[in-house]
Design a protein that fits this description.
2 copies of one chain form a homodimer.
Chain A (H helix, E strand, L loop, with lengths): L11 H12 L2 E2 H11 L8 H13 L3 E8 L2 E8 L1 H25 L8
Antiparallel strand pairs in A: 1-3, 2-3
Helix pairs in contact in A: 1-4, 2-3
Chain A binds a DNA duplex through helix 2, helix 3 and strand 3.
DNA sequence: TGACATGCCTCGAACCACAAAGTACGCTGA
DNA sequence: TCAGCGTACTTTGTGGTTCGAGGCATGTCA
C-alpha cells in the first residue's frame, strides 16, 4: 500500500531537513512546504516523513527544539547544532560521491542503445 | 551490523545493473567489477547485492538469463528485454527528477552558512 | 597439497520512507 | 452556534531493500 522505499529517496529527507535548518530555524509544518519549494516541486515530503526525521535528529543532538507561542498556537522551532552542521557536511559529501558516481555511469546516454 | 539502508543508495543497484546490461550482456561477477569501474570507484556493490537484483529483474521479466559454459565453468549471462529497457528509462527519469530537485535545494552552498 | 581467483548463491538483520488517520486549535461565514 | 477549513503536531503499521558474511564448487599455479 504505502509505496515504501521509492527509488533514490533513502537519506534524502534527512539531507533536505538539515539543508533548510542550516539556513534558518523552522518548524515542521513550514519545512513540509519549504521542501516542495526549494526542490522546484520535484520532491514532496509529507508530515509523516518530516516529523519522525526531526525527532530523530533531535534525539541524536543534531538539532535543538524550542517551543514558541504564535497566535495562541504552539510551534516547535528547530535549529541546527554544531553536531548537525557536521552531519550535514558529511551527508552532503556522501551525496556528491554517489550522485557523481551515477552521473559517470549514466554518462553518454546516447551510447546506451546497444 | 550490516549497515543497511545507507543514505542515497535505494534503487541505485537496480539502476546501475540495468545501465550496464543496456550496453551489453554480462554475468554477475563481471557486473560487480564493472560497477566499480563505471562509477569511478565511487560505488562498490558486493555479490550479495548484485545477485538478488539480477534474480528480481529476471522474475519481473526485465532481463533474460542464458547459461554459457566457459572454460568448463558455467556463467549466467543476462541481457535486457524490451520490458527492461522501459524500466531503465523510467528509472532514469526518476533519477533525473530527484537528483535535480536535490541539486536545486543544495543550490548555492556558500549561502548555507546562515 | 595448499592457496587463490573466479563464479554463483543464500541468509538474516536492521533501517526507514511512506500513507493514513487522529488530535486540537483558531478563524471565517451563514 | 455550528460547519468547514487551514494550521500544526503526532502515531502507527508496513514492507521493500541494501548489506556483510559466508557457503559451495571449479580451475590454475606453485
Amino acid at each position: 500500500m504505502a509505496q515504501t522505499n521509492p527509488p533514490f529517496m533513502s537519506g534524502v529527507p534527512e539531507l533536505l531537513v538539515l539543508r533548510l535548518l542550516a539556513r534558518q530555524e523552522m518548524y515542521g509544518y513550514e519545512i513540509v512546504r519549504a521542501v516542495r519549494l526549494v526542490t522546484g516541486e520535484a520532491i514532496t515530503l509529507g508530515e509523516g516523513v518530516i516529523y519522525p526525521v526531526l525527532h530523530g535528529l533531535e534525539r541524536s543532538g543534531a538539532v535543538r527544539a524550542k517551543r514558541k507561542a504564535v497566535n495562541g498556537r504552539t510551534r516547535v522551532y528547530y535549529s541546527l547544532t554544531t553536531k548537525g552542521r557536521l552531519r550535514f557536511d558529511r551527508l552532503t559529501n556522501e551525496w556528491d560521491r554517489i550522485s557523481g558516481g551515477i552521473h559517470s555511469a549514466l554518462g553518454d546516454r546516447e551510447h546506451a542503445n546497444a
